[in-house]
Known about the structure:
Layout: H1 5-11, E1 25-28, E2 30-31, H2 38-54, E3 58-59, E4 65-79, E5 86-99, E6 104-117, H3 120-129, H4 136-155, H5 157-169, H6 173-180, H7 190-207, H8 209-221, H9 225-233, H10 242-253, H11 258-272, H12 274-294, E7 299-300
Parallel strand pairs: 1-3, 1-4
Antiparallel strand pairs: 2-7, 4-5, 5-6
Helix pairs in contact: 2-3, 5-6, 5-7, 6-7, 6-12, 7-12, 8-9, 8-10, 9-10, 9-11
Amino acid sequence: MKKSALVFLFFIISCLCNAQNDNVHISVAFPNNSKLDANCMNILKNKLFSIATTSGVATTECSSIVMVPDVAILDSKRVEGGMRNIMSVEIGVTVTVQNIITSTVFNTLQVSVKGEGYTNEAAMRTAINRIEPKLKTYSDFIYSSKDKILDYYKKNTSSIINKANTLASTQAYDEALALLFTYPESLPDYEKVAQTISKIFMECQSKNCSQLLLAARAAYSKRDYETAADIISSITPQSSCAGEAKSLLEAIKKNIDKEHETAIALEREKTREKNQLLKHSINAAKEIAVAYFNRQTKYLFFW
């Protein structure tokens, strides 16, 4: 099904987050003033992801829990060679594990590596490539970070939910959902967080009901009945445009064959069930959280 299509249309999202499981999920975000070029950032991002996964921590493209690498050139000199001079650099990388929404810092790691190349950029790439993800220093850092993150969420569940509700009350739905989506599913109070995600998503959806209905009508006009029905099925009965949505769904049923009509009826029936509705809300709300991260100006996420 094309459930995510409605969110892509409305929020213009360019990346997808991985689904959460019983783990801490962590991403990499660079400061917007990073001196690294795109190639170096990509290499360093992959190194940090490798360090995390090697130590059993799941990585995701976008998250409020991030490893933020700050790179500084500690030493740079030109070494005379035969045909060409060679640049030798030593860089210091300070990796901070933090929640970028609450500004909570969990852990820091400092790394110093050297590299050589015909240019400063080439020398820095060599240096970053010499970071060895399997070193015990890095695994200890990740294990410690994970423990601190879990402990933080265990002790601050209520305050996190309250902050999310406060953000939602000011219609900052995307930031509220982004804050909640990093909460580990393995923790005992996750059900409370999931219910809050669903509630905030429905508030957001109800406010933007007319835009969703417009997207459904656009798909209907192109005879893309499946997409139109998917969008409509995400509009809850409590939404302000629920009546119009129901009328449009009836129009769709008149224009498709019996097989599709039955499929739509079954889909709508499933989404009315409590557990299915909760799951659907969380999946759709996740895309809103991703859009929030993509709009950040202080940090840069890229895949």
